[in-house]
């Protein structure tokens, strides 16, 4: 992979970590183990994702998250717990992908990766808070399944064509920002209602 492709891969994986950190870690590690992601020799530190223990732990967490995300109150609790974990995971994924010999790139990747993961997580959590307020369970399940498909599809694209995935990731960051603002407006309207 070229330097531009590695940056695009870092941007995409860190953004997706804001939605599904454990799935992203598992699939990225599995792709490395199968040789689908060929990293330059100087980036062998990222091979830690292909470690069997990391694969087992991230795979088990991804499986738990898959089911927990479909139940409204558990989903909200899970998003709350992961409010610090997902942005940090996105930052570490981005940090692991860039050139370890250049501290400037490391700091920039850590900050950008953490920021992208935080914005994606905040957008997801805000949107899901609105959906979870619905009394019926089907909208929550449909939105969660859509997130699963979008994450898996964009991650597959990031592995096959990192630059195209980074462009889509940029659009998703903008969408996440819009969702954060929409959730904020909705909460403001709910709090400002006057009783009849």
TrEMBL record:
Signal peptide: none annotated. The chain crosses the membrane at residues 6-31, 43-68, 163-183. Residues 7-180 form the DUF4126 domain. It comes from the Bacteria. Pfam families: DUF4126. Keywords: Membrane, Transmembrane, Transmembrane helix. This is DUF4126 domain-containing protein. It comes from Sphingomonas swuensis. The lineage of its organism: Bacteria, Pseudomonadati, Pseudomonadota, Alphaproteobacteria, Sphingomonadales.
């Amino acid at each position: 992979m070229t330097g531009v492709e590695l940056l695009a891969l870092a941007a995409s994986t860190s953004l997706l970590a804001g939605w599904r950190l454990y799935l992203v870690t598992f699939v990225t590690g599995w792709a490395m183990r199968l040789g689908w992601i060929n990293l330059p020799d100087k980036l062998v530190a990222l091979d830690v994702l292909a470690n069997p223990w990391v694969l087992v732990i991230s795979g088990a967490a991804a499986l738990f998250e898959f089911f927990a995300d479909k139940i409204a109150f558990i989903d909200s609790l899970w998003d709350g717990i992961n409010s610090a974990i997902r942005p940090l995971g996105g930052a570490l994924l981005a940090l692991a992908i860039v050139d370890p010999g250049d501290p400037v790139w490391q700091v920039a990747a850590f900050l950008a990766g953490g920021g992208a993961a935080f914005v994606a997580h905040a957008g997801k959590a805000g949107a899901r808070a609105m959906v979870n307020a619905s009394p019926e369970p089907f909208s929550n399940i449909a939105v969660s399944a859509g997130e699963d498909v979008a994450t898996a599809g964009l991650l597959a694209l990031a592995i096959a064509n990192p630059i195209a995935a980074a462009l889509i990731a940029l659009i998703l960051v903008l969408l996440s920002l819009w969702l954060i603002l929409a959730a904020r407006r909705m909460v403001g309207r709910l709090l400002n209602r006057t009783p009849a």
